[in-house]
Amino acid sequence: MKLEMKDRPGQLVAALKPISAVGGNIKAVIHQRETPAVTETLDVQIVLELPEGRLPHLLDLFQEQGVSVVRIDEERLLYECTLIMIGHLMHTDLSDTVDCIDRTGSAEVTGLSLVMPAINAPSSARITIRSTTRAEMMKAIRILRGVAEQKSLLIIEPLEGA
Amino acid sequence: MMRIALLGLGSVGRGIARTILAKNLDITVTGLADSHSGIIDAGGIDLLAVLERKEAGGPCGSPGVSPADVVAEAEYDVLVEVTPTNVKTAEPALGYMRTALRRQKHVVTSNKGPIAIAYPELQALAKENGVFLKYEATVCGAIPLIHAITEGLAGNTISRLSGVFNGTCNYILTRMAAEGLTYEQALDEARELGYAEADPTYDVEGIDAAIKLVILANAVLDMRVTLDDVERTGITLLSPEALELAEDQDCTIRLIGEIIPGAGVLRVSPRIIGKAHPLVVEGTLNAVTVGADLAGDLTFIGKGAGSIETASAVIGDLLAIRERYVQGS
User: Of A81, A106, B84, B327, whose CB is crowded by the most CB atoms within 10 A?
Assistant: First the structure.
């Protein structure tokens, strides 16, 4: 998530405390240098990760501290992982396989590329999963592994994680 | 001068004999045996004559002399045990090694069985008898991985070890990716070139790679694990379409062995990996990345098998022992 605020004296310090108070993790603080120097204030951008559902509380705390947020750019599904599945993907109900991930609510299948070389031959698919956190991604992959075992599918995971 | 007893005259044993003949290493072979015959000669065995007899299809020595006789009776400083691997019982090699260690002889081996199954016992026995057990050749052929981790990286904590531990699988996957071959076609090609056995199960099901992980885990990472602790998936179900799907994203698929000591992860499985990743090596090569806290990541690439290449690791162990422990005789 990206927060943009005016860089008035003391604003940044006032903004940092509430972020840690709600369990947020600051990834970057960027001053918008391209803003004309004639203006009194500079824009400052904070890129952070926040546990699900904590944003309203954070905004309340900001208000108490007198921090004014100009813009919020929320990206919910920050983590992406691409895997390959091999097996009888259609005969074992591909949409059910996808549903198992989507049902978690914190991870989604956002891409699927399927190759079916011949009737009755095993097919291969590249599946892209996005999730809110790294832990949710690990959970989604564990679910997929379980489903694959039941359906006799081979799952190929990336060497480097999400 | 260092005196050795050499057990096993297969590809590795002959590679060692040829290397001793070709280089002035000051190593004398005083005992020698293959599965059918043996020689004991305190004055030094004529290796050239042995290799010629072997080449002609004959026994290396007299049928009355068994490997057990050589181990128990010959006068030597180091037992070089390079007989074929038995992953179930590790015998008969395990018994030979016990006898040699009890006789206070150092042991150097390329045999994965005894090291994977009985490393703690053998190491304790070596210590008890004031001698050394070395096994560089059991993992990744010519790559001096054990030396690198135990000596070069001494003092580091190893957080992760991952790599391509099986040349046969790497060859098959390289060919499937490069030519769009099916698994069966690539396997046939590997067989024709002598890279795969008639029964390739041991390689393609990831058993060989898993054994190497067990050796590394027990011997250099202080874990206590067995082959059953390794989560293992082979490459037999891989499709050329899967490799194409990886290729579309500038990736490929390799059989990767992985140990994460802190998380108890021991795993052999096909993995998607960026083509620019240092572990993506071609053909029968092996590659291992060691993640060390002080040194950072180090990647070793080299030949994982072959007669002279494996002999290189055995000779390295022998000379390391001589350097430190064998007082001339």
Answer: A81
